[in-house]
Amino acid sequence: MACNSSGSLKDDIYFLYAIVYTVILIPGFIANLLALWVFYAYVKETKRAVIFMINLAVADLAQVLSLPLRIFYYLNKTWYFGKFLCIFCFYLKYVNMYASIYFLVCISVRRCLYLIYPFRYNDCKRRYDVYVCIIGWIAVGLGCLPFPLMRLEQNQTNFSSCFADLPLKDVGTTTSIIMVTLAELTGFVVPLIVTGICSWKTIMSLRENTVLQDHGEKRKALKMILTCTIVFLICFVPYHISFPLAFLTKSGKIENCSARKFIDIFHPVALCLASLNCCLDPIIYYFTTDEFRRRLSRQDVTENMIPLQKTLSHIESRDK
């Protein structure tokens, strides 16, 4: 039974995407660029998950830089930039999402281990974190390849449509179920369990009186881990509930018209929430990292601007 598609609903969803991405664009760009500027100096002062924060900011900034093309498409309803750029931006969205999930988990695990085993992980070499990041980028990049590959049609010559409007290959019910299950388990369920365990272990450590870590340090670690968990829940739980449903709807496995309409509304809203992580991730840096707040304080910013002001003054005097 064919369901009557509503053109007005599609227009409303396009408008929702355009508005949300426009709202995200400027704050996300400024916040993540500022984060990278702060971490450039901060990386020399601490080993506490800063490498993972840098990579998280890079992942968010990469997605933010692709938003203008998405906004243009959803406002004009036509793609003018060719096949490669369409598929690349489509692929980048999922790389950002799962890279963000990966590095949020890494931050939580790193802080939890540092708190519970301070002497073992206090002198942990920074290069190990770099290796973990490299492995993570490779795993995420390879793991996200099925998303664009499932949307590539060999005989497709007209690329006036992009993103959610790309056609979906029919790979069969069994293969679809296996792919969706693997994506949900590796990209969502396992990371959710790991962050939950880190939160629980950190909460339990607050009840223990030990000389290895002061109570204030434990509270800082708990604040960071809980913030990572909250961002995870807000941004990624709704999407991973809607993702298998949207996949089954797109592939024609769900035929009930009421169910399809609900999913067609719920999935775009969940996707918008997932995109918000570009703006929410910097909250982790600011509200859970003392050094980050210190470097953004008026006094510290002023001190950092003094050399620049002296250089500009020297240039002006030389020109005169």
UniProtKB/TrEMBL annotation:
PROSITE patterns: G_PROTEIN_RECEP_F1_2 (PS50262). It is a multi-pass membrane protein. The chain crosses the membrane at residues 14-43, 50-73, 79-107, 128-149, 177-200, 221-241, 265-288. GO terms for biological process: phospholipase C-activating G protein-coupled receptor signaling pathway; positive regulation of Rho protein signal transduction. GO terms for molecular function: G protein-coupled receptor activity. It comes from the Eukaryota. InterPro entries: GPCR_Rhodpsn, GPCR_Rhodpsn_7TM, GPR174_7tmA. Its main location: membrane. Gene3D superfamilies: Rhodopsin 7-helix transmembrane proteins. It is found in: Cell membrane. SUPFAM superfamilies: Family A G protein-coupled receptor-like. GO terms for cellular component: plasma membrane. Interacts with GNA13. Interacts with CCL21. This is Probable G-protein coupled receptor 174. The lineage of its organism: Eukaryota, Metazoa, Chordata, Craniata, Vertebrata.
